Amino acid sequence: MNPRLTLVTAARVLRQVTRDHRTLALLLVLPVVLMALLAWIYVDGDLFERVGPVLVTVFPFVVMFVVTSVATLRERTSGTLERLLTTPLGKADLVVGYALAFALLAVVQGVVATTVSVWLLGLETVGSAAWLVLVVVASGVLGTTLGLLASAFASTEFQAVQLMPATVLPQFLLCGLLVPRDQLPRTLELVSDVLPLSYVVDAATTVARQAEPLADLGQPLLVIGVWIGLALTLGSLTLRRRTH
Hints:
Largest sheet: none
Oligomer: single chain
Helix content: over 70%
Shape: globular
Number of strands: 0
Number of helices: 11
């Protein structure tokens, strides 16, 4: 992998995304709108404080997954990827460049979503909002890398979107948001132990409940990091020049 080519790729992707106002709105505005809707739904109770810290991390995961998988697939279907790979640009340069570009967008997304949720919508966590931003960003980067990997198994943008519920909804059901993971049937609990979204929820719950969450954030953030690295590696190995 060539660091210079990776950075060039990241800069190109960032230019493309910033010129697409609809994609920017999806990335930056949609999570805020969803959190505002959630706060409105739970305006008369304390459920917003209970589920808000988790959902403010889950929403960016879903959005980044969809945007990244579709954007990467578009590179193949338009022939851009095939042309790029005739240059010295390698598959790892392309995948990591994409991941880096969307990771920077995930940072902005995380700061915006957390700031609005905490200071405008009144979301309260025992831990500092800075820890919540960290978890939101990690979740967004995780969604990005899994979206890059999922794009390898789609032939059209519609198929890429279809992969979202197939990939995300089972994790949503088993991540501990609806039922605590230790109360799931044993088989489902074991499955949930290897799903990355489970550790996003664990990290968000830790920040929501602990004033000093650093000690208990180590394991979930490590697992998220392992999944990010695994998705990038598999994404590089499975990347195809064109979609037939």
